[in-house]
């Protein structure tokens, strides 16, 4: 796939479309082709500059002064007026962490790291085991969709529990989550935009009321940790900041991990000898998790916007340019990984992947995501070592520029 044009030294690509069918079905051959051709190019289909190689992407992540995070959550395509009106009435979220730059980002992140303490993450481990066991116990022999049965409900339950949302609200909260990815990262229809904007507004109002409740009566959860930080120093975090964090985390900690665990199960069952190795020695699972993050992460691309003109590998990217960094292409860059297109859970250096980013925005949920995937795989290896992917199923992936995971994953569950 060659860049089809060149303007003032910048390769222009009219064919690169992350919302196109071929890319959605399998972005990796396209990542490889563009990475081999050029370190950076302009993609007219999405009006973004695309960066393709590990070293350049790492440099972008480490330079927040030049590559601002402010576009991280913004809709890729303009919203309809109706959706904008709905949001104006009841959605008061503002940039808070993944879409915000220093110094504001530094302040908010510092307090969040307190809430994501190793003690709190470790305290979740028995809960992840209990919830995963409950979900797996409910599976009956025969054909089962593991997204529905396990990989969607497990991270949803864990992140809602972590934030502190009560159990009885979970079904309602989940019903508001549908299709959020399409809103900011895809090209939703006007009807879809209306529905998603309404759900986001409901969710936002729920978060505001929830944080007000915790402010009046803190308990032992992440939101109450933030409330206590505020009680000690009211200038540290506003109630709006805390509401933003609760809102943002319920997204960041959910679909990312659903998709990741789905990708993990799919890759392992597609490589039966590697699945068998894990079932024989569950000590291999942590290593396998890193290889899946390298090979088939749930966020193969992420966004930035330039604050000034910058040279990337000899390609001049202008100021205020929207940029797509291909994390998935970086993770298969032969300069950094031997035989990068081979999925190999025994690989020694998989952990050098960029799946969780790098630098000041490095994923704060990485320990939780790793733990959930590890426990889900461990349980499946114990309970269903003989499970098989249903043959000839068509995997369907949501059309968007950043997130990737199968919508459903059919397996034959042994009797
Ligand atoms: C396998 C699952 C996950 C993947 C692949 C993933 C990936 C990422 C990536 C690439 C970034 C960096 C974005 C940037 O540089 O701008 C990030 C940031 C972030 N992630 Fe994750 N994530 C996952 C799971 C989670 C979970 C479970 C949580 C919460 C419990 C979470 C919360 C966050 C937050 C809050 C940020 C923003 C951090 C900041 O801007 O300082 N993520 N994640």
UniProtKB/TrEMBL annotation:
The yes or no answer to whether the keyword Repeat is present is: no
Q: Check the record and name the InterPro entries matching this protein.
A: Cyt_P450, Cyt_P450_B, Cyt_P450_CS, Cyt_P450_sf
Q: Does the keyword Transcription apply?
A: no
PANTHER family attached to this UniProt entry:
CYTOCHROME P450 YJIB-RELATED, P450, PUTATIVE (EUROFUNG)-RELATED
User: What is the organism lineage in this UniProt record?
Assistant: Bacteria, Bacillati, Actinomycetota, Actinomycetes, Kitasatosporales
Family, similarity comment: Belongs to the cytochrome P450 family.
Origin organism of this chain?
A: Streptomyces filamentosus
Q: Which GO terms describe its molecular function?
A: heme binding; iron ion binding; monooxygenase activity; oxidoreductase activity, acting on paired donors, with incorporation or reduction of molecular oxygen
UniProt-recorded name of the protein:
Cytochrome P450
Q: Where is the signal peptide?
A: none
- What keywords are annotated for this sequence in UniProt? Heme, Iron, Metal-binding, Monooxygenase, Oxidoreductase
